[in-house]
UniProtKB/TrEMBL annotation:
InterPro entries: F-box-assoc_dom_typ3 (IPR013187), F-box-assoc_interact_dom (IPR017451), F-box-like_dom_sf (IPR036047), F-box_dom (IPR001810). PANTHER family: BNAA05G37150D PROTEIN-RELATED, F-BOX ASSOCIATED UBIQUITINATION EFFECTOR FAMILY PROTEIN. This is F-box domain-containing protein. It comes from the Eukaryota. CDD domains: F-box_AtFBW1-like. Residues 1-42 form the F-box domain.
């Protein structure tokens, strides 16, 4: 007979679909797979199963294409088995953030409509709309200590307090107690990233200087567990984008530069110390169509620190992984991912396909969250 501890370790190494199916093997296996500690360990960001999640928007629907492993493929053309389904997204939603948050992601619009989504087990929940709130930005965070997900809602009007919603049964919006007077500096399109229990995003902070008020753009940190805000002075005298990345467990702020890859890394949050990073652009001048199109930096792999670039055409999706330490590029071509959406995507393909690097599978259920919608559509 296999010891229970060994069964636990074996199940942790399975893909999410297999783990879900194996709940039917026995009551013991079902109890193991549904335990909170198993679910938490299964969705660990340090997992070797990190994927590039590709998501497309078509009219008022959001369609999942595939989760593509980041570490398995050398240079090759790949025709993955595509498993599609769709949810009805807010009509005018925005793409916030550069990565999923411990296996979950979300869609939101400026009017307080928020959908939290677990693409692994095909569940989504439409959160209750914050009352009397218009023109807001939302950020999803995860507290690894208490194993809780929270949504932060911030109005662009500074006189309104930020709201917090904890994903769980019988939860509702509440006012954040440790508030600082601020608003997202990029308004509706503000992007953020959650790293080690903190959500980072750019914000306009208002200070009182004598009889007048002064406004500055800086980085805001939100402690998901204690729900505290902290202002971090951004690097001075530099052209910063609205893109944040997870660089070896630290927040990295990308710079606008066409001559190289350049960004700042927050080395010490308490001392507010930043350090610059600079790498040469990896793309040679080759007679290859892939080098003649716009390549967009999407993130950095957690395990190998490779820069992820993508190029989307109507024929294929190209993903380039650049390792600056080895000065090596590997290119993967994915065909057949957007055939059904060709008519809609061809006019604005880059704006309607989103990429989430370092996505880890999660077995977290959203059934107990108010607003859970059990029906999803199989394509």
């Amino acid at each position: 007979m296999i010891p229970t501890d060994m069964i636990h370790e074996i199940l942790l190494r399975l893909p999410a679909k297999s783990a879900g199916r194996f709940r039917c093997v026995s009551k013991l296996w079902s109890s193991i797979i549904t335990r909170p500690d198993f679910i938490r360990s299964f969705g660990s960001p340090s997992s070797t199963r990190l994927c590039l999640l590709i998501c497309a928007r078509t009219l008022n629907k959001c369609r999942i294409f595939n989760s593509i492993p980041q570490h398995e493929h050398p240079d090759r053309t790949y025709n993955p088995h595509v498993e599609k389904y769709e949810i009805y997204a807010p009509r005018v939603y925005h793409y916030h953030g550069s990565e999923t948050v411990h296996g979950l992601t979300y869609l939101a619009d400026p009017y307080g409509n928020i959908i939290v989504w677990n693409p692994t087990i095909r569940q989504h929940v439409k959160l209750p709309r914050p009352s009397e709130r218009l023109f807001v930005c939302n950020f999803l965070g995860y507290d690894p200590v208490e194993d809780k997900y929270k949504v932060l809602c911030i109005s662009i009007c500074r006189y309104q307090d930020p709201l917090v919603f904890t994903l769980g049964p019988q939860e509702s919006w509440r006012v954040a107690q440790n508030n600082l007077t601020h608003s997202p500096s990029r308004t509706f399109g503000a992007r953020g990233i959650c790293i080690n229990g903190h959500v980072y995003y750019e914000a306009e902070i208002q200070y009182r200087v004598g009889d007048t008020f002064k406004t500055e753009d800086n980085l805001m940190s939100f402690d998901v567990r204690y729900e505290k805000f902290n202002v971090i002075i951004k690097p001075a005298n530099d052209k910063l984008c609205d893109c944040f990345f997870n660089y070896s467990g630290k927040v990295a702020w990308l710079c606008s530069d066409v001559s190289c890859i350049r960004f700042w890394v927050l080395e010490d949050k308490e001392k507010q110390e930043w350090s610059p990073r600079k790498f040469p652009l990896p793309f040679p001048r080759l007679r290859d169509p892939i080098w003649l199109v716009v390549l967009r930096l999407r993130g950095i792999t957690h395990d190998t620190c490779e820069f992820i670039y993508t190029c989307t055409t109507l024929e294929a999706i190209y993903v380039l992984y650049y390792d600056p330490k080895r000065n090596r590029i590997r290119r993967v071509k994915y065909e057949g991912l957007q055939e059904e959406e060709e008519d809609f995507l061809k006019n604005n393909i880059e704006e309607n396909i989103h990429y989430y690097p370092n996505h880890c599978e999660s077995l977290v259920s959203l059934k107990d969250v108010p607003g859970f919608e059990p029906d999803w559509l199989r394509i």
